[in-house]
Amino acid sequence: MSKYIYISSDHGGFKLKQNIFTFLTNKKYHVYDLGTDSNTSVDYPDFSDLLVRKMKTNSNFIGILFCGTGIGMSIAANRHEHIRAALCTDVNMASLSRKHNNSNVIVIGGRTTSPHLAKKMIQTFLNTDFENGRHLLRINKLRKKI
Ligand code: RB5
C-alpha cells in the first residue's frame, strides 16, 4: 500500500499521534502531520477537514486520524464521499477494513488505545490489500444517494 500518509488529531489524540508520527517516520514512511500541535483543546471536525481536503487531491495517500475515542473523527471523515474511514479497536478490524472495505483512513482513539496496539493496527492496515471481487460492488453502492 501507499508509503504516503497524512496524519491528524485533536487534543484527545495528540499524544498518540506524536508517538505514531515518530514510529512511522523511523520506518521511512512519508508522513505529513496536519496537527494539532499541542494538548490545547481544539474541535475534531476542523482537523478531520484538513485531512479530508488533502486526500481529495492526493488519492495515493492514506490517512490516520486520532481523537479521544476515534468516534468523532470517524463521523466527521465519513461525511465525505472519497473517504472510507474505519474506527479500529483491534488488529482484525484493521485487516478487514482493508480487505473488505478498501478503507483509506484508519481512525484510532487516543484515550482508548495503547501505543503498542495502535502500532500493530497501523502496520496491519498499511500492509493489507483490498480483496476486490464482491466487495467492490458493495463499495460502489456507498455512493448511492437516498
Ligand atoms: C474531546 O474531549 C473528545 O470529545 C474528542 O477527542 C473525541 O473523543 C470525540 O469523539
Q: Can you offer a commentary on this structure?
A:
This protein is of the alpha/beta class and 146 residues long. The protein has a single domain, classed as Ribose 5-phosphate Isomerase B, Chain: A, CATH 3.40.1400.10. The protein has helices at residues 14-26, 44-57, 71-77, 91-99, 115-126, 134-141; strands at 4-9, 30-33, 62-67, 85-87, 105-109. A five-stranded parallel beta sheet has the order 2-1-3-5-4, sandwiched between helices. The mean pLDDT is 96. Bound molecules: D-ribose (RB5).
List the helices and strands and how they pair.
Elements: E1 4-9, H1 14-26, E2 30-33, H2 44-57, E3 62-67, H3 71-77, E4 85-87, H4 91-99, E5 105-109, H5 115-126, H6 134-141
Parallel strand pairs: 1-2, 1-3, 3-5, 4-5
Helix pairs in contact: 2-3, 4-5
The chain binds D-ribose.
Describe this structure in a few short sentences.
This protein is of the alpha/beta class and 146 residues long. The chain has one domain: 3-Layer(aba) Sandwich (Ribose 5-phosphate Isomerase B, Chain: A).
Instruction: Give the N-terminus to C-terminus distance in angstroms.
Output: 32 Å
How are strands sequenced across the largest beta sheet?
2-1-3-5-4
* Morphology: globular
Kindly report the name of the CATH homologous superfamily: Sugar-phosphate isomerase, RpiB/LacA/LacB
Tally of contiguous helical segments: 6
CATH class: Alpha Beta
Q: Could you name the CATH topology?
A: Ribose 5-phosphate Isomerase B, Chain: A
Biggest sheet record: 5 strands, parallel
The figure for the number of domains is 1
Structural class: alpha/beta
Percentage of residues in DSSP E strands: 15-25%
Average per-residue pLDDT, rounded, comes to 96
Segments where pLDDT lies below 50 for 5+ residues? Answer: none
What is the CATH architecture assignment? Answer: 3-Layer(aba) Sandwich
- Total DSSP E strands: 5
Spatial extent as radius of gyration: 14 Å
Helix content: 40-55%
Series of H and E elements: EHEHEHEHEHH
